[in-house]
Design brief:
Blueprint lengths: L5 E2 L16 H23 L6 H25 L6 H4 L22 H19 L3 H11 L1 H14 L13 E2 L6 E2 L3 H10 L9 E2 L6 H21 L8 H17 L13 E2 L15 E2 L1 H26 L6 H4 L2 H18 L1
Parallel strand pairs: 1-2
Antiparallel strand pairs: 3-4, 5-6
Helix pairs in contact: 1-5, 1-6, 2-4, 5-9, 6-8, 8-9, 9-10
Length: 346
């Protein structure tokens, strides 16, 4: 029987060097931060802004600190309805398992990371008395391309895989949750893709959407291209890129979430379809995940930002030329002064 799916590449390993706590996921994040820094400093030089390297590096430092704290707190609270970490808050940033093996911080939330990074950047820029909207525009324009590498890190880890699919682009992830063959829909997909089912108690590893790669393209490459080449040259007011980023990311993430498997213990906070919907399966566009709810809030927040920042621009005094501002008598004095100085120079 022909198989209609792909196998996860066996040669991929989360660990860079066996025996050492060096993982591709962490390296990908370093690449993402480095690329964002390069794109940010490029904009600073292009606009000929007076900003020293120490100020930029310090802003990135506090952005990363806020990102890590926010991402971890959201992952262990908003995305953990069991309350395990709320009862044991000292474990939120504990990077070891029960056997004291180093695991790192397993579980990070993008939306929480965004909130934390915003708090860190805004606080730092306010202390330094730097224009928050101006620098924020440059930062969000530089960020998305780094997401590509973060999602590649998820793919190498074999985590954040998508929902089950019978399409030929489906992939068997070795760590994916097995589905009991007692589930009728699971047997139907197994038959469709050529996976033999021998017993009702069999646990099936079914093909999944490689949603990490979808997100690497949508949230990373596509969003960056649109922001950098379409919106950045047409920016009309300070804060415009911030609003465009929030709307753009929220939109593409909302779309990608239809292929990404929601957390099993959360399922669909909004389920408007009357059909049963296992979290591993796409059934209806009307069933919304927590990630989609937060993405919708991003879109709304982006629209509000555009409206508020546009009104701020409208209230700013218009810059007029000196000739229009000066009163008539001052203009006369200016002209006579110019004549005198001209005779003395001769």
């Amino acid at each position: 029987m022909a198989t209609l799916y792909m196998n996860y590449p066996e040669w991929l390993s989360p660990v860079i060097i066996p025996g050492l706590p060096l993982r591709w996921y962490g390296l990908m994040y370093l690449v993402a931060f480095g690329l964002t820094y390069v794109l940010f400093t490029y904009q600073v030089r292009q606009r000929k802004l007076q900003a020293d390297d120490d100020t930029i590096i310090n802003m990135f430092f506090w952005a990363i600190i806020g990102l890590l704290i926010g991402a971890r707190v959201f992952a262990t609270t908003v995305y953990d309805p069991s309350g395990y970490y709320l009862r044991r808050p000292w474990l939120i940033f504990w990077p070891f398992d029960e056997n004291m093996n180093f695991t790192g911080l397993l579980g990070m939330s993008y939306h929480g990371g965004l909130v934390g990074a915003v708090v860190g950047v805004v606080a730092y820029l306010r202390i330094k008395k730097i224009d928050i909207l101006d620098w924020g525009d440059m930062l969000v324009t530089a960020i998305p391309l780094g997401y590509t590498f973060g999602r590649l890190g998820n793919f190498i880890n074999g985590e954040l895989y998508g929902r089950v699919t019978a399409g030929p682009w489906g992939m068997l992830f070795p760590n994916a949750r097995r589905i009991p063959a007692s589930e009728e829909w699971a047997v139907e997909i197994a038959d469709a893709v050529g996976i033999p089912v021998t017993a009702p108690e069999q646990l099936l590893n079914l093909p999944r959407h490689p949603s990490q790669l979808y997100e690497a393209f949508l949230e990373g490459i596509l969003l960056w291209l649109v922001l950098w080449f379409v919106f950045r040259p047409r920016q009309r007011f300070r804060g415009f890129m911030i609003g465009a980023y929030l709307i753009g990311y929220g939109f593409v993430r909302f779309i990608a979430e239809y292929t990404r498997q929601p957390d099993a213990d959360m399922g669909f906070p909004i389920q408007l379809s009357s059909q049963p919907n296992p979290p591993e399966l796409f059934v209806s566009f009307l069933n919304i995940t927590m990630g989609q709810l937060l993405s919708l809030l991003m879109v709304v927040a982006g629209g509000i930002c555009l409206l508020v920042f546009y009104r701020i621009k409208q209230r700013e005094p218009k810059v007029e030329t000196m000739e229009r501002v000066l009163p008539p008598e001052a203009k006369g004095k200016k002209r006579s002064h110019g004549k005198k100085s001209g005779r003395s120079r001769r």
